Protein backbone atom coordinates (compact mmCIF):
# COMPACT_ATOMS: atom_id res chain seq x y z
CA UNK A 1 0.00 0.00 0.00
CA UNK A 2 1.12 3.51 -0.78
CA UNK A 3 2.33 5.46 2.28
CA UNK A 4 0.70 8.89 2.58
CA UNK A 5 3.37 10.94 4.31
CA UNK A 6 6.50 9.62 5.93
CA UNK A 7 7.18 5.95 5.28
CA UNK A 8 8.71 3.59 7.82
CA UNK A 9 9.48 -0.07 8.20
CA UNK A 10 8.51 -2.48 10.92
CA UNK A 11 11.02 -4.94 12.31
CA UNK A 12 10.28 -7.76 14.74
CA UNK A 13 13.29 -8.96 16.74
CA UNK A 14 13.81 -11.83 19.15
CA UNK A 15 16.84 -12.44 21.36
CA UNK A 16 17.27 -16.02 20.12
CA UNK A 17 18.52 -17.58 16.89
CA UNK A 18 16.03 -17.31 14.02
CA UNK A 19 15.45 -19.97 11.38
CA UNK A 20 13.43 -19.51 8.24
CA UNK A 21 12.12 -21.43 5.28
CA UNK A 22 9.53 -21.91 2.62
CA UNK A 23 6.80 -24.50 1.97
CA UNK A 24 5.17 -23.85 -1.37
CA UNK A 25 3.66 -20.37 -1.28
CA UNK A 26 4.10 -20.13 2.49
CA UNK A 27 7.17 -18.46 3.97
CA UNK A 28 8.04 -18.54 7.63
CA UNK A 29 10.61 -17.54 10.23
CA UNK A 30 10.75 -18.51 13.87
CA UNK A 31 12.81 -18.05 17.01
CA UNK A 32 12.44 -17.71 20.77
CA UNK A 33 8.87 -19.00 20.79
CA UNK A 34 7.65 -16.67 18.02
CA UNK A 35 6.52 -17.62 14.54
CA UNK A 36 5.91 -15.36 11.57
CA UNK A 37 4.20 -16.95 8.56
CA UNK A 38 3.06 -15.33 5.33
CA UNK A 39 1.32 -16.51 2.19
CA UNK A 40 0.53 -14.72 -1.05
CA UNK A 41 -1.86 -16.31 -3.53
CA UNK A 42 -2.99 -15.04 -6.92
CA UNK A 43 -6.79 -15.19 -7.19
CA UNK A 44 -6.48 -15.88 -10.90
CA UNK A 45 -4.89 -19.23 -10.00
CA UNK A 46 -7.37 -20.16 -7.27
CA UNK A 47 -10.74 -18.86 -8.41
CA UNK A 48 -11.84 -15.68 -6.67
CA UNK A 49 -11.57 -14.30 -3.14
CA UNK A 50 -13.56 -17.07 -1.41
CA UNK A 51 -11.60 -20.03 -2.76
CA UNK A 52 -8.32 -18.14 -2.44
CA UNK A 53 -8.98 -17.22 1.21
CA UNK A 54 -9.91 -20.84 1.96
CA UNK A 55 -6.64 -22.04 0.38
CA UNK A 56 -4.53 -19.44 2.16
CA UNK A 57 -6.06 -20.13 5.57
CA UNK A 58 -5.94 -23.88 5.07
CA UNK A 59 -2.21 -23.70 4.32
CA UNK A 60 -1.50 -21.38 7.25
CA UNK A 61 -3.67 -23.40 9.68
CA UNK A 62 -2.00 -26.69 8.76
CA UNK A 63 1.42 -25.16 9.13
CA UNK A 64 0.64 -23.59 12.50
CA UNK A 65 -1.04 -26.79 13.76
CA UNK A 66 2.24 -28.62 13.14
CA UNK A 67 4.34 -25.96 14.86
CA UNK A 68 5.31 -25.48 18.51
CA UNK A 69 4.11 -21.88 18.07
CA UNK A 70 0.48 -22.94 17.60
CA UNK A 71 -1.24 -19.96 19.27
CA UNK A 72 -2.07 -17.44 16.55
CA UNK A 73 -2.20 -13.97 18.07
CA UNK A 74 -2.51 -11.64 15.10
CA UNK A 75 -3.38 -11.87 11.39
CA UNK A 76 -3.24 -9.26 8.63
CA UNK A 77 -5.23 -9.69 5.39
CA UNK A 78 -4.83 -7.58 2.26
CA UNK A 79 -6.90 -8.14 -0.87
CA UNK A 80 -7.74 -6.32 -4.08
CA UNK A 81 -11.05 -4.54 -4.80
CA UNK A 82 -12.34 -5.32 -1.31
CA UNK A 83 -15.62 -3.40 -1.77
CA UNK A 84 -16.40 -4.60 -5.30
CA UNK A 85 -19.80 -6.31 -5.60
CA UNK A 86 -23.01 -5.64 -3.72
CA UNK A 87 -24.70 -7.25 -0.73
CA UNK A 88 -23.54 -10.80 -0.07
CA UNK A 89 -21.51 -10.62 -3.29
CA UNK A 90 -19.13 -7.97 -2.09
CA UNK A 91 -15.62 -9.37 -2.41
CA UNK A 92 -14.90 -8.81 1.30
CA UNK A 93 -17.87 -11.01 2.18
CA UNK A 94 -16.63 -13.73 -0.14
CA UNK A 95 -13.28 -13.45 1.60
CA UNK A 96 -15.01 -13.90 4.99
CA UNK A 97 -16.78 -17.04 3.71
CA UNK A 98 -13.51 -18.58 2.55
CA UNK A 99 -11.55 -17.52 5.63
CA UNK A 100 -13.84 -19.43 8.00
CA UNK A 101 -13.66 -22.55 5.81
CA UNK A 102 -9.86 -22.51 5.80
CA UNK A 103 -9.44 -21.67 9.48
CA UNK A 104 -9.79 -25.26 10.65
CA UNK A 105 -9.42 -26.36 14.27
CA UNK A 106 -6.61 -24.14 15.50
CA UNK A 107 -9.05 -21.30 16.17
CA UNK A 108 -11.53 -23.46 18.08
CA UNK A 109 -10.66 -21.63 21.30
CA UNK A 110 -11.18 -18.21 19.76
CA UNK A 111 -10.11 -15.95 16.94
CA UNK A 112 -6.94 -13.88 16.74
CA UNK A 113 -6.76 -10.12 16.39
CA UNK A 114 -6.89 -9.14 12.71
CA UNK A 115 -6.96 -6.51 10.02
CA UNK A 116 -8.59 -6.82 6.58
CA UNK A 117 -7.86 -3.99 4.14
CA UNK A 118 -8.18 -3.50 0.40
CA UNK A 119 -5.05 -2.83 -1.66
CA UNK A 120 -4.98 -1.13 -5.04
CA UNK A 121 -2.72 -3.44 -7.02
CA UNK A 122 -4.02 -4.52 -10.42
CA UNK A 123 -2.98 -8.11 -9.71
CA UNK A 124 -5.49 -9.80 -7.41
CA UNK A 125 -3.01 -11.09 -4.88
CA UNK A 126 -4.38 -12.14 -1.49
CA UNK A 127 -1.73 -11.56 1.13
CA UNK A 128 -2.17 -13.05 4.60
CA UNK A 129 0.47 -12.93 7.30
CA UNK A 130 0.40 -13.85 10.94
CA UNK A 131 2.21 -13.82 14.25
CA UNK A 132 1.95 -16.88 16.51
CA UNK A 133 3.50 -17.86 19.82
CA UNK A 134 4.26 -21.04 21.76
CA UNK A 135 2.15 -19.84 24.68
CA UNK A 136 -1.47 -18.69 24.63
CA UNK A 137 -2.31 -15.00 24.77
CA UNK A 138 -5.49 -13.33 25.99
CA UNK A 139 -8.25 -12.22 23.64
CA UNK A 140 -9.85 -8.88 24.36
CA UNK A 141 -13.23 -7.61 23.15
CA UNK A 142 -14.42 -4.00 23.07
CA UNK A 143 -17.36 -3.15 25.37
CA UNK A 144 -18.45 -0.43 22.89
CA UNK A 145 -18.73 -2.94 20.05
CA UNK A 146 -20.56 -6.16 19.29
CA UNK A 147 -17.96 -8.89 18.84
CA UNK A 148 -17.36 -9.21 15.11
CA UNK A 149 -18.15 -12.94 15.04
CA UNK A 150 -21.60 -12.05 16.44
CA UNK A 151 -22.46 -9.41 13.85
CA UNK A 152 -26.05 -9.81 12.58
CA UNK A 153 -26.86 -11.28 9.17
CA UNK A 154 -26.96 -7.90 7.40
CA UNK A 155 -23.14 -7.83 7.28
CA UNK A 156 -22.87 -11.06 5.32
CA UNK A 157 -23.39 -14.81 5.47
CA UNK A 158 -20.23 -15.34 7.48
CA UNK A 159 -19.45 -12.88 10.27
CA UNK A 160 -15.85 -11.67 10.33
CA UNK A 161 -13.74 -14.05 12.44
CA UNK A 162 -11.46 -11.88 14.54
CA UNK A 163 -11.00 -10.63 18.11
CA UNK A 164 -10.73 -6.89 18.81
CA UNK A 165 -7.26 -7.34 20.32
CA UNK A 166 -4.94 -9.89 21.85
CA UNK A 167 -2.65 -9.43 24.81
CA UNK A 168 0.54 -11.29 23.87
CA UNK A 169 1.75 -14.01 26.27
CA UNK A 170 4.05 -11.87 28.44
CA UNK A 171 1.10 -9.48 28.96
CA UNK A 172 3.29 -6.54 27.98
CA UNK A 173 2.08 -5.90 24.41
CA UNK A 174 -1.43 -5.45 23.08
CA UNK A 175 -1.97 -6.38 19.41
CA UNK A 176 -4.78 -4.08 18.27
CA UNK A 177 -7.07 -5.21 15.43
CA UNK A 178 -8.22 -2.92 12.69
CA UNK A 179 -10.42 -0.46 14.60
CA UNK A 180 -12.89 1.86 12.95
CA UNK A 181 -15.99 3.95 13.57
CA UNK A 182 -18.19 1.00 14.51
CA UNK A 183 -20.49 1.34 17.54
CA UNK A 184 -22.46 -1.73 18.54
CA UNK A 185 -22.45 -3.37 15.15
CA UNK A 186 -23.28 -0.26 13.10
CA UNK A 187 -20.98 2.03 11.15
CA UNK A 188 -21.20 5.52 12.62
CA UNK A 189 -20.73 8.98 11.04
CA UNK A 190 -21.07 8.14 7.37
CA UNK A 191 -19.20 10.66 5.15
CA UNK A 192 -17.74 12.47 8.17
CA UNK A 193 -13.99 11.86 8.43
CA UNK A 194 -13.38 13.85 11.61
CA UNK A 195 -16.29 12.22 13.46
CA UNK A 196 -15.10 8.76 12.31
CA UNK A 197 -11.59 9.54 13.60
CA UNK A 198 -13.04 10.65 16.95
CA UNK A 199 -15.19 7.51 17.26
CA UNK A 200 -12.23 5.33 16.30
CA UNK A 201 -10.12 6.92 19.03
CA UNK A 202 -12.94 6.32 21.54
CA UNK A 203 -12.93 2.66 20.48
CA UNK A 204 -9.14 2.45 20.83
CA UNK A 205 -9.28 4.08 24.29
CA UNK A 206 -11.97 1.60 25.37
CA UNK A 207 -9.80 -1.28 24.15
CA UNK A 208 -6.86 -0.09 26.27
CA UNK A 209 -9.13 0.16 29.32
CA UNK A 210 -10.55 -3.32 28.69
CA UNK A 211 -6.99 -4.67 28.37
CA UNK A 212 -5.72 -2.95 31.54
CA UNK A 213 -3.08 -1.23 29.45
CA UNK A 214 -1.87 2.32 30.15
CA UNK A 215 -4.16 4.95 28.65
CA UNK A 216 -3.23 6.96 25.58
CA UNK A 217 -1.18 6.42 22.45
CA UNK A 218 2.37 7.65 22.96
CA UNK A 219 5.78 6.61 21.65
CA UNK A 220 5.01 3.07 22.91
CA UNK A 221 2.10 2.80 20.48
CA UNK A 222 3.20 2.29 16.87
CA UNK A 223 0.06 2.62 14.77
CA UNK A 224 -1.00 2.27 11.15
CA UNK A 225 -3.86 4.40 9.84
CA UNK A 226 -5.54 3.16 6.66
CA UNK A 227 -7.22 5.96 4.67
CA UNK A 228 -9.75 5.32 1.91
CA UNK A 229 -9.24 8.66 0.11
CA UNK A 230 -5.68 9.89 -0.38
CA UNK A 231 -6.83 13.50 -0.13
CA UNK A 232 -7.93 12.83 3.48
CA UNK A 233 -4.34 12.18 4.56
CA UNK A 234 -3.59 15.76 5.66
CA UNK A 235 -6.62 15.82 7.99
CA UNK A 236 -5.65 12.41 9.38
CA UNK A 237 -2.11 13.65 10.10
CA UNK A 238 -3.57 16.74 11.79
CA UNK A 239 -5.84 14.55 13.95
CA UNK A 240 -2.87 12.39 14.94
CA UNK A 241 -0.73 15.45 15.74
CA UNK A 242 -3.49 16.69 18.05
CA UNK A 243 -4.40 13.41 19.77
CA UNK A 244 -1.35 11.13 19.58
CA UNK A 245 1.60 13.40 18.75
CA UNK A 246 4.36 10.96 19.78
CA UNK A 247 2.90 7.72 18.36
CA UNK A 248 5.07 6.31 15.53
CA UNK A 249 2.63 6.52 12.66
CA UNK A 250 2.33 5.02 9.19
CA UNK A 251 -0.57 6.33 7.11
CA UNK A 252 -1.45 4.03 4.21
CA UNK A 253 -3.79 4.34 1.25
CA UNK A 254 -6.17 1.39 1.56
CA UNK A 255 -9.87 0.54 1.41
CA UNK A 256 -11.74 -0.27 4.60
CA UNK A 257 -13.82 -3.45 4.37
CA UNK A 258 -17.13 -1.62 4.97
CA UNK A 259 -17.73 0.82 2.13
CA UNK A 260 -19.21 3.42 4.50
CA UNK A 261 -16.00 3.64 6.55
CA UNK A 262 -13.30 6.15 5.61
CA UNK A 263 -10.55 5.26 8.04
CA UNK A 264 -9.25 2.39 10.20
CA UNK A 265 -6.43 2.15 12.74
CA UNK A 266 -4.40 -0.85 13.90
CA UNK A 267 -1.14 -1.38 15.70
CA UNK A 268 0.49 -2.11 19.03
CA UNK A 269 0.39 -0.77 22.56
CA UNK A 270 3.43 -1.63 24.71
CA UNK A 271 3.16 -1.49 28.46
CA UNK A 272 6.48 0.46 28.44
C1 LIG B 1 -15.10 -3.74 11.98
O1 LIG B 1 -14.92 -3.28 13.11
C2 LIG B 1 -14.25 -3.17 10.87
O2 LIG B 1 -12.47 -8.97 8.71
O3 LIG B 1 -10.57 -9.33 9.73
C3 LIG B 1 -11.73 -4.73 11.24
C4 LIG B 1 -10.69 -5.63 11.56
C5 LIG B 1 -12.70 -5.11 10.32
C6 LIG B 1 -10.64 -6.88 10.97
C7 LIG B 1 -11.54 -8.61 9.45
C8 LIG B 1 -12.61 -6.38 9.73
C9 LIG B 1 -11.61 -7.26 10.05
O4 LIG B 1 -15.94 -4.63 11.74
C10 LIG B 1 -13.79 -4.18 9.92
TrEMBL record:
Keywords for this protein: Lyase
A GO molecular function held by the record: lyase activity
Keyword Endoplasmic reticulum tagged: no
Highest taxon of the lineage: Bacteria
Matches recorded under InterPro entries: FkbO_Hyg5-like_N, RutC-like_sf
Ranges for domain Chorismatase FkbO/Hyg5-like N-terminal: 10-132
Pfam family, one: FkbO_Hyg5-like_N
Annotated protein name in UniProt: Chorismate lyase/3-hydroxybenzoate synthase
Gene source species: Luteibacter rhizovicinus
Taxonomic lineage of the native organism: Bacteria, Pseudomonadati, Pseudomonadota, Gammaproteobacteria, Lysobacterales
Amino acid sequence: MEPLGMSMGEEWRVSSPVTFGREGALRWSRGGGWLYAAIELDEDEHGGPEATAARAYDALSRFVAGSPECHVQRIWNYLADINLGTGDDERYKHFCNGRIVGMGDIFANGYPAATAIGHHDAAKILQVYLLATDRPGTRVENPRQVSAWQYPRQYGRTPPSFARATLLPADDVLAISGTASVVGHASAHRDDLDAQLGETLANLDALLTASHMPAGFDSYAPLKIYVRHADHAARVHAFAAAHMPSAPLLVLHGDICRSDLLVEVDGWRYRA
